[in-house]
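One thing: could you explain this record?
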Amino acid sequence: MFRGDDSMKYEAIKEIMGQSKELKLTIDMVISRSEEIRSFFTQPGDIVFIGCGSSYWLSLSAHRTFQLLTGRRTYAIKAGEILMNPEEHRDVYENPILVCPSRSGSTTEQLKAIKILRDYYGKVPIISAVEYLDSPLEKISNLCLLLPWANEVSVCQTRSFCCLYLTTILIAALVSKENSFLKGLEGYIEIAQSLHSKAEQQIKDIVSNFTSFDQLIAIGSGRQYGVVIEGAYIGIEMALLNASYYSVLELRHGPIVTVDENTLVALASNGSSREYEEGIAKEVRDQGGKVLAVVGNGGFTNADWVIDMGGDYPAEAIALYFVFLMQLFAYYQAIRLDLDPDHPGDLVPYITL
C-alpha cells in the first residue's frame, strides 16, 4: 500500500520519525537549567498551566504529574476559557505561578489570558517553553526555556508536542527531585529511536490490514489523558479522521454504542489498572471493534494489536510513546486517503484573533 517514494516525500514523516534526537536535546537543555527552574518554584503558590489546543492537552496531563510529584495545587486552564469567562478566574488562585507551553509564543488567546490574570493578580511570574525565537511570550516570561530544534516545517504539531510535553514533566521532576521518575524518562529517551523504528512497520501493518477503518477512539486515564486526547486530535488534523477521545471507563457510559467493526480503539495503558483496561477492551471487541493497546510491559490479552515497550516505564513515558504512535497512524492514514499530511486543509501553525 505504501510505496517508498510516495510515503516518505513529506516533511511530517521525517519530523515524526526523527524526533528521538529532538527529545534528547530537550532533556539535556532542561536538565542544564535545573538550578534556575528549581529557584523559580521556591516561592509558594498555585501552579496554573495555560495553553491552547495541543499546548492545553499536554498541560492537562502535565499539571497532574506536577501535582502528584510536588504535592502542590495545580490547574490546567484553556486560554480561550479565560478570555470568554474572565470573571470565573478572579480570586480563584492563590499567588498563581503560570506555566505556559507554546510552539509559537504568539497565540493571541494565551497572551490575552496572561494579561487578564496579571490584571487580577499583579505581576504573576511566568515560566514558558517556546520553540519560535524572539516571541511575545518569551519577552513577557520571567524564565523561558527555548526549544528551536523542536519546531516543524509541516503545519501539524508532532515532535513539537512531544518536546513541549517532555519539558513540562521534566520541570515537575526537577522541582520535586524525584530521581526515579527522571531516570524513567531518561530510560525511554535512550531507547526511543529503536522503539520508534520498530513501531513504524507495526503501524503500517495496521493501516494496511484494517482497510474498513473509519473511526478512531483514543482512550486513557489520569496523567496520560491529555496526551491521549492529542492522539485523537492529530488524527483529526493530519488525516481528517472521524476521531474522538474518552477516559478509559467513560467509554462504556454511552459512547460505546458508536463502536462497530470499522472502529479502532487505541488505548494507552497506565501500567497499574490492567484489569479495568482489559475489561473495556473486551467490551469494544464484543461490539465488533478492534483494539490497539500500548503498554509499558506485560502484554495485553483483549487487543487485536499490542505494542509493548518492553520495560517498566512511568505512565508519562507510555503516554509519550502512545502519541508518537498516533502521529504515525495519522500520517499513514493521510497517505492512504491521498491527503497532504504537511498541509491538511486550511490549518495554520498558530491562531491570531
Notes: Strands lie at 47-51, 74-78, 97-102, 126-130, 143-146, 215-220, 243-247, 263-268, 290-295, 305-308. The radius of gyration is 20 Å.
